[in-house]
Amino acid sequence: STQSTWGPLLRGSEGQRTLLQMGDAINEARALGQKFVEKYYSTMARSPKSLHGFYAAEAQLLWVFGDEELTNVTDVQTRLIDLGIESGTISFESFDSIPSPNLGVVIMTAGAISGAVRPMRFVQTFLLTFHPPHTYYVAGDIFRVLNEAPAAAPTPPRSPVTNPVAVEHAQHAEKLHEEQARLHALQQQQQQQQQQQQQQQQQQQQHQQQQHQAQAQAQAPPAPSPPKPAGTPSWASKLFG
Questions:
Q1: Calpha distance 162→6 (Å, rounded)
Q2: Mean predicted confidence (pLDDT) in 132-161
Q3: Residue 126: left (phi > 0), alpha (psi -120 to 50), or beta?
Q4: Angle value at C-alpha 96, between 90 and 102, nearest 5 degrees
Q5: Phi first, then psi: what are they for 150, rounded to 5°?
Q6: How far apart are CA 74 and CA 69, in angstroms?
Q7: Largest Cα–Cα separation, the chain
Q8: Backbone angles phi, psi at 72, to 5 degrees
Q9: Residues forming a β-bridge with 11
Q10: What is the SS3 assignment for 30?
Q11: Each residue of 70-106: b (16+ CB within 10 Å) or e?
Q12: What is the pLDDT of residues 193-239, one digit of tens each?
C-alpha cells in the first residue's frame, strides 16, 4: 500500500539530521504535529479509504465506538465510510504534541465530526515513528468517541480542518467585502441625489427664464401708430377751392 511522507524533514549535508534534532525539540514536534494533523484529518474527510497510507505495517490501533472496538486500518476505513464521513465535516478543536525517544512524536487531538450519519465528538492519540531517510508513519493510534453529538441545524460548508488563523482571515475578508459593498451603494445613492439636484436646478433655471421673458414682453412700450398719409393742406383748399 502507498504510504505518506511528510515533506523535506531532513536538513544538513549528511542527510541524517531531522528537524527534531535541531533547535527546540518541543517547537519542532509541535510544527510536525500541526502538519500531520492537518493532512490526516483532511484525508479522513475527503478520502477515508486512503488512511492506510499514514500507518506503518506494524502499527497498533484501537478505535472505540461505544461497545465496538476496531484494531486494524481496513476495518477503520470501512467504519468511517459507513458513517458517511465524506458528506460531513471534521474539525479538530485542539492538539498537543511532544517529542518521544528515537525521533518520534506523540500527538493528542480533540475534535468533532458533524454533518455525517452519526455526528460525534472524539479524542485521538498518535505515536509517530521516524523511518529514514525522511518519513514519519503512525506506529500507534487510539481513537475514542466521547459522545454522539445531537443532530444540529445545517451549517454553511467549511474546511475539513479548522484553522483559527484561516478563519480569522476569512472573517476579515468577509467584513471588508461587506464594507466595500456598503460604500459602493452609498456612492451610487449620492450620485443619484446629485443628478436629481442638477435636474431640479436646470428646471428652475428654465422656469425663471420663461418668467423673465414674459415680464419683459408685458413691460415693453406699445409700438407707435403709423403716420397719416400726406394730403392737401387746408389753406390750399381755401385758396384754390
A1: 20
A2: 71
A3: beta
A4: 115
A5: -65, 150
A6: 13
A7: 159
A8: -145, 155
A9: 17
A10: helix
A11: beebeebbeebeebebeebbbbbeebebebbeebbbb
A12: 888 888 888 888 888 888 888 887 777 776 666 665 555 555 445 55
Cell of 235: 389753406
Strand partners for 109: 95, 124
Give SS3 for 42.
helix
Q: What is residue 13's three-state secondary structure?
A: coil
**Tens of pLDDT along 30-41?**
999 999 999 999
DSSP 156-213: ----SS--HHHHHHHHHHHHHHHHHHHHHHHHHHHHHHHHHHHHHHHHHHHHHHHHHH
Look up residue 20 and give its amino acid: L
Grid cell listed for 144? 475514542
Q: What cell numbers appear for 61 in the block?
A: 490501533
Task: Please name every residue paired with 114 in a beta bridge, in sequence order, or none if there are none.
Answer: 89
Cell 542527510 belongs to 15
Angstrom distance (rounded) from CA 42 to CA 36: 10
Cell matching residue 240: 384754390
Give the H/E segment covering residue 217.
helix 164-219
Q: What is the rounded distance in angstroms from the CA atom of residue 103 to the CA atom of residue 105?
A: 7
Spatial distance between the Cα atoms of 217 and 207, rounded to a whole number of angstroms:
16
Could you give the dihedral angle defined by the CA atoms of residues 150, 155, 160 and 166, in that order, rounded to the nearest 10 degrees?
Answer: -130
Cell 492506510 sits at which residue?
Answer: 52
Residue the block writes with cell 519542532: 28
Non-local CB neighbours of 135 within 8 Å, separated by 6+ positions: 3, 5, 6, 9
Shortest CA distance to 162 belongs to which of 103, 233, 215, 114? 114
Residue 209, C-alpha cell as written in the block: 427664464
Q: Letter for the amino acid at 207? A: H
Hey, how many other C-beta atoms are within 10 angstroms of the C-beta on 189?
10
